[in-house]
Design a protein that fits this description.
With about 425 residues, this protein is mainly beta. The chain has 4 domains: about 120 residues, Sandwich (Immunoglobulin-like), CATH 2.60.40; about 90 residues, Sandwich (Immunoglobulin-like), CATH 2.60.40; about 90 residues, Immunoglobulins (Immunoglobulin-like, Sandwich); about 90 residues, Immunoglobulins (Immunoglobulin-like), CATH 2.60.40. The protein has no helices and 39 strands. The strands form 9 sheets. A 7-stranded antiparallel beta sheet has the order 5-1-12-11-10-6-7, with no helix packed on it. Strands 14, 16, 17, 19, 20 and 21 form a 6-stranded mixed beta sheet that branches. The chain is flat and about 95 Å long. It starts with 6 loop residues before the first strand and ends with a strand. The relative contact order is 0.09.
Amino acid sequence: MKKYIPLIIFIAALFISCGEPDVLRFHGNGGLSLGIVCGTDNSDEANWPDQFTAHLTITGAGMNAIEQDLSVHRNAQDSTLFNAQEIIEVPVGDTLTIRISAQLDSLVWSGETNIILEAGSMQNATVSLNAENRFPNTSSDPHPVNGAVSVDTSQVFLMWTGGDPDPGDTVMYQVNWGTTLSLDSSSTWLPFNEYFLNNLSSGTHYFWRVTAQDNFGAITPGPIWEFFTVNAGGNNAPTTPANPTPQNGATGIDTLQLVMNWTSTDPDQGDTLTFSLDWGTTPQLGNTVPGLIDPQYVLNNLQAGAHYYWRVTAEDNHGAATAGAVWEFFTISGVVNQPPGIPSNPSPISGMINVDTLQVIFSWNSFDPDPSDTVTYRIDYGTSLALEDSITGLTEFIYLMPALQSGAQYYWQVTATDNHGASTAGPVWQFSTVARG
């Protein structure tokens, strides 16, 4: 049960006829009034404060929504009376939806009711305010800390921070754990935020997660944390190399220089790692770079349009090694894109005078040396060399301009861009339009 039980608010509404059949009008002091008071039939009413602010919203077909903040008191005479500030006409028989909301103790309470409009009568209704239940907090602050190493296998004391944003809610927790991300083992639902794991395997990578559930059934799964148990023999192997750069399956890799990166750690504090990199153009690899101290290596002058494979092996100073997966990437094709040619042969020709203002057809020539490329064009133009206006996305060598100013000097330029993003701007051309009296 919440700290507050649902609050009952009484609503009284008086409507008057405007003298027209089947139409109601309310405005100012002569129309709609809403008196809002705490419900006296609430046995636990004392849990509510003597005064609080509520927000009123009134909606209906054919009218704009009305909104107002109201001061709600235990004494009805002290409560705010709502009065419409403008003339509103609503057909008889229409339904008004009256919604009230309030925020108390970080909870948002709300409720609504409907009133069917009838002329010349006082209509009463009630709104029951209820708080919407919020989900429990996401579990945080794990112990052991996420990524902890050399954790004792005999007994692991799991702890975390939980809770719920709604005052008065109770929360239960369930722990799921395992040696894979599927988390195959689980606890019962626990009333406290701690749990013991016993007799774990040595030298093992464990994962765990806490799920919280409140007394209303709302569930919040937490993140997956991990830890490594101590190795009975005194040494744990490095973690599997991961997070490759370039990403596995990457395409369009530059052939001149490729910086390769990866991640790998050792669960044993104080251990040092070295790496060996195997790579080649077949899954059998064939080339090896041993003794790397940093998780990085640079390959130069790769083949164009080739399929490459690579793998990293991490080894600690005790000789324990862990090989990663075989990753792959594709280098960029050996064909180098060439930009479009310079736009030429303008019409109107540059320097032309007395050009008709009603219909000016811009045209030009352009080409791309790569036969399979597609080219789009942009026209920049204006009455100064700043070329204030632009027309983009053209796919033809021609464009019909709208009416231009008479007796004006115009400048224009065409820029060609291919589908690889290479652009070539033409020269700035000019012409003048005919002067009209």
